[in-house]
Amino acid sequence: MNAMYCHGLGTIISTKSRVSGYGKIVGAKLLATPHGLVYPKFIVIVDEDIDPFNLNEVMWALVTRFRAERDLVLIPNAPGSTLDPASYSRGLVTRMIMDATTPIPPDIPLQGLSLVTPPDEASEWIEQLKRIMR
């Protein structure tokens, strides 16, 4: 984690993505910490192969992995530092989480698993479900 930029108003976190949308979850968790409640205004989440202290690598991740329509979270009118010169009114800022991690497909619970043998009447219903899940 690198929170050195602009006295902590900019934060870069390198993490291993575990599930789809994990970068956004990490950014939201940072905002729930005592430091995160006041300081970080923009948060960039990158994969573990990116060094958060190397701005060239971070910018590469943003340019190649970040898509605003999918990976941007804006939180308007959030409490922030009263020392932030760009705040709307004293102590209110818009926070931004940019997820620049490699996308992971969403998990499908129990895909390919069968805990019990379905009765013969359910086979048509199961076939319809398999077509939908493709």
Structure description:
The structure is a single chain. This protein has 134 residues and is α/β, with parallel strands linked by helices. It has a single domain (2-106), classed as UbiD C-terminal domain-like (3-Layer(aba) Sandwich), CATH 3.40.1670.10. Helices cover 31% and strands 25% of the residues. The protein contains 5 helices and 5 strands, in the order ββααβααββα. The chain has helices at residues 22-31, 34-38, 55-65, 68-71, 123-133, and strands spanning 2-5, 10-15, 42-47, 72-79, 92-100. Strands 1-2-3-5-4 form a 5-stranded mixed sheet. A hairpin with a 4-residue loop joins strand 1 and strand 2. The chain is elongated, with a radius of gyration of 20 Å. It starts with a strand and ends with a helix.
Write the H/E string, N to C: EEHHEHHEEH
How far the N terminus sits from the C terminus, by CA atoms, comes to: 38 Å
Major beta sheet, strand line-up: 1-2-3-5-4
Sheet with most strands: 5 strands, mixed
| Mean pLDDT rating | 84
Number of helices: 5
Question: How many distinct domains?
Answer: 1
What CATH architecture do you see? 3-Layer(aba) Sandwich
Shape descriptor reads elongated
Low-confidence stretches: none
How much strand?
15-25%
CATH fold-level name: UbiD C-terminal domain-like
CATH hierarchy, class: Alpha Beta
